[in-house]
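Dear colleague,

Thank you for sharing your sequence with our group. We've completed the structure prediction you requested, and as agreed, I am returning the results in plain text so they can be pasted directly into your records. Please verify that the sequence below matches your submission; if there's any discrepancy, let me know and we will rerun it promptly.
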Amino acid sequence: ALFNLHVPRTGVALKTLPSHPFDTLKDFARCVRHLWRDPLGQISLATTTLFWGAGATLQFIVIEWARAALGFDLSKAAILQGVTAFGIAIGAVLASLWVSLDRSIRVIPLGIGMGLTVLAMIFVHQVWAAIVLMILIGAMAGFFVVPMNALLQHRGHHLVGAGRSIAVQNFNENTSILVMIALYSLLLGVGYSIYTVILVYGLFVSATMGMVLLWYQRNHRVHREEVDRLLAFARAEDPHPQR
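Please find the predicted structure tokens below.
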């Protein structure tokens, strides 16, 4: 709270929130519709929603996989989660340096590759290989999610406001997390091995990211002028357009 006191004001006028809870729900539903109908907002929202659901599930997968493939207990498996986080940090830094806002869409194929890379976990039984693989998966994840999240915040800010955009994003992402972890638990609960779960998980991530890529390509084909205008707008607002 003390640090927040020193955050400089942006000068943006705050929008008045509805006073009645029902009106708040209607306002939230309106914001959800706006973001899901925007040609770029829907793509970035879909990718971040899928990513955070997949990312949360991967944390549980890593723990069970480390036990089955490497003989790790919970404390050692948690170290692999930290290794993955280290890779995410590397990918995030590289993305901030190399990917401009208007080129964010170009990282979607990396999401497809990330899902396929996860499949390599099935064949890894050495600790050193597991560390390398976790860093690689984390780096791909970080490089993928940072540009898409930036694009989502950009579109959300202009469509519904930054605060409402974050609320919509959190709602979708947490829903995705709950659904995907529930499916993961269901697969293990009915007796499937962790290797089968990894196979299903990797193919699911790749397939859904591929569908999002096709979705964007359709948007660009059907609404080319609108999409190009929005990308040009993003380019104009990017403080580092030459990356």
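Summary note from our side: The chain has one domain: 39-237.

Kind regards,
the structure core
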